[in-house]
Amino acid sequence: MSVSGDLLEVNGSRPCENGGCHVELLPAVNDDHGGVIVEMKEHIAADMFVNLLRASILQWKQQGKKGVWIKLPIELVHLVETAVKEGFGYHHAEPSYLMLVSWIPDTPNTIPANATHRVGVGAIILNDKREILVVQEKSGRFQGTGIWKIPTGVVEEGEDISIAATREVKEETGIDAEFVEVLGFRQSHKTFFEKSDLFFICMMHPLTFDIQKQELEIEAAQWIPFEEYAAQPFVQKHDLFRYINELCLAKIERGYAGFSPRPTISMFSDHPSHLYLNNHDLDKSRKKISGMNMNIFPPIFLLVAALWLSASNLDYMVLGEDSIGIMPSICQQPCHPLPPPSGYPSYGAPAPPRPPSFSGYPSYGAPPPPSLPGYPSYGGAAPPPPPRPVQANCPPAAPVQCCGQYPATNSNPYPYQPLVDDHSPNLDIPLSTTSIVTLLFSFVVLF
């Protein structure tokens, strides 16, 4: 089959322009990776095919195409030799067609390999009597060995794992079973015509119990106690079968959670697909998140912060002088003032001479001025009580003048220096019982 260049445009251009050229090309469509796909459907002679193929490849090189795929149905098998001579090779084959491919640019070939894995399933089915469904095969490596094994099979093209396991159980034993989850899977290599193998171990629940074995492939099928199956020497000898036993026991005795299918929508295909995941743990995490009302989280955070600050302030107030680096906010006892620094006249010393500029002020030793109404006079009032002992780390509290430091020489002329501590909490506040309890309460509220 051939088409003219006027009918076929690959990437919007043609080998001949201005209507002066008529070139026949192979029918092709663009793929998603910069290549073209040729699907031959009608009969064509080999000599005509090679001419069309050469002209098409020339055109595709000019257009910057990369991979060229030719799908030949089994009816056109006579074109295989022609394509191979033009540089094409086998990529894969199916019962109804052969796919050939060629990389035409002068760059490294990035054509993906054919499918690398074969996928198989094995079904573990237990009834209420703790009996497992097993079979003996008429062919294969277990033929004539008397070994009991779980039903197994290969996943067909376009078939999901859960559907394949259900189908294999029905075909081999006649038992209807419901897929539960994938307990685990094994990967091995170079097993089937050099291909790798993925084997999924599926837990299933029986819906029927009357066995109707498949006569073509199955020698025997029955329910046997799980312990009897697990005690077989062959099972005890091989790691895979021992792990299958452990998975089975973990599921039925310890609540082991496998992988269950979740329907998903893919952007790459319109066909249904499934994501296999641990539903048990996923649902628990979702419930934990949904159980927390995220709208009240900011107020709770503010409340906890306020409680924490309040507890810290309470610690600061009540720990007192027993806590290092902490000053109480209120003096428990008034402080005794420090004696005046040296260089100042002591109380009771003779009065210094008055300079002339101080005229008008009473001299030392002069009679006291008359008392104001409502105030006691100096002569008849009782003396004030003696000061109490000095306490360390005592801040000022009106009206008592608290202890300070001696003023530096030639600095403050007053006998007492004001304290600079503004009683702000120290950053090195120790964690008391109140703070620890508040912190624990915060975690309980938040989590």
Summarize the structure in words.
A hairpin with a 2-residue loop joins strand 11 (177-192) and strand 12. Helices cover 25% and strands 21% of the residues. It has helices at 46-62, 80-85, 161-173, 226-230, 233-237, 239-254, 279-291, 297-318, 433-446, and strands at residues 3-4, 24-25, 29-30, 36-39, 67-73, 89-94, 97-103, 117-125, 131-137, 152-154, 177-192, 195-206, 218-225, 260-264, 273-277. Among the domains are: 3-103, Gcn5-related N-acetyltransferase (GNAT) (Aminopeptidase); 117-263, Nucleoside Triphosphate Pyrophosphohydrolase (Alpha-Beta Complex), CATH 3.90.79. It is α+β, with helices and mostly antiparallel strands. Helix 8 (297-318) packs antiparallel against helix 9. It contains nine helices and 15 strands. The strands form five sheets. A five-stranded mixed β-sheet has the order 3-4-5-7-6. The radius of gyration is 48 Å and the shape is flat.
Tally of extended strands?
15
Strand proportion, as a percent range, falls in 15-25%
Determine the structural class based on helices, strands and strand pairing.
alpha+beta
Biggest sheet, strands in spatial order?
A: 3-4-5-7-6
- So, CATH architecture of the domain at 117-263? Alpha-Beta Complex
The value of Rg in angstroms is 48 Å
Tell me roughly what share of residues is in helical segments: 10-25%
The helix count comes to 9
Topology as H/E string? EEEEHEHEEEEEHEEEHHHEEHHH
Give the CATH topology of the domain at 117-263: Nucleoside Triphosphate Pyrophosphohydrolase
CATH fourth-tier homologous superfamily of the domain at 117-263: Nucleoside Triphosphate Pyrophosphohydrolase
| Overall geometric form | flat
Report the top-level CATH class of the domain at 117-263: Alpha Beta
Between the first and last Cα atoms, what is the distance in angstroms? Answer: 72 Å
| Biggest β-sheet strands, sense, barrel | 5 strands, mixed
Q: Can you tell me the residue ranges where pLDDT is under 50 for at least 5 consecutive residues? A: 1-15, 318-333, 397-422, 424-429
Mean pLDDT value: 76
